Amino acid sequence: MFAALFHILCIHSVPSAGYRCWPRVWLFLSLKAHAAPCWLLEDFVVATECSQCNAFQTRSWSACEATGYVERVNCTRSNRDEYKSCRSAVLEEHLFWKFEAAMLALTASFAILVVIRQRSLDRLASEKVRRQIESI
């Protein structure tokens, strides 16, 4: 990955590749480290449990966009408070039961379809036997 990043930064953006490209690579990597949230880079403690975002938070916080739920975490090394997207246990349970209901409905509909098809095939077989007996 580093080689590909080096290639992209050096070959495609700088007229002459080589040692003059290294400062740009290190600057890019250090900017990427500062742009990443602290909970990705270090240990953290959950300060506020997972809760649903309100309308304002959903529009303005990037952490609320993914799931609509957010928790406040405190990073131990930098001692910063940041917000992290999370999945609600209530939402997970709701989605689980929706999935179970959908699978039950699908199972019931296919079971009914199998019974209808079996009756149709039985009727065709009985009619075929009746015609064979009548032709004798």
The largest sheet has its strands arranged as 1-2-3
- Shape label: rod-shaped
What fraction of residues sit in β-strands? Answer: 15-25%
Quaternary state of this entry equals single chain
Briefly characterize the structure:
With 136 residues, the chain is an alpha+beta fold.
What does this structure look like?
With about 140 residues, the protein is α+β, with helices and mostly antiparallel strands. The chain folds into three domains: about 1-35, no CATH class; about 40-85, 2-Layer Sandwich (Signal recognition particle alu RNA binding heterodimer, srp9/1), CATH 3.30.720.220; about 90-135. The chain is built from six helices and three strands, in the order αααβααββα. The chain has helices at about 1-10, 20-35, 40, 55-60, 60-65, 90-135; strands spanning about 45-50, 70-75, 80-85. The chain has a three-stranded antiparallel beta sheet. The protein is rod-shaped, with a radius of gyration of 31 Å. The N and C termini lie far apart (about 80 Å). The relative contact order is 0.08.
Strands, helices and their partners?
Elements: H1 2-11, H2 22-35, H3 38-41, E1 44-52, H4 55-60, H5 62-67, E2 69-75, E3 81-85, H6 89-135
Antiparallel strand pairs: 1-2, 2-3
Subunit structure: Interacts with AURKA, AURKB, BIRC5 and INCENP. May be a component of the CPC at least composed of BIRC5/survivin, CDCA8/borealin, INCENP and AURKB/Aurora-B.
Subcellular location: Cytoplasm, Cytoskeleton, Microtubule organizing center, Centrosome; Cytoplasm, Cytoskeleton, Spindle; Membrane; Mitochondrion
InterPro entries: JTB
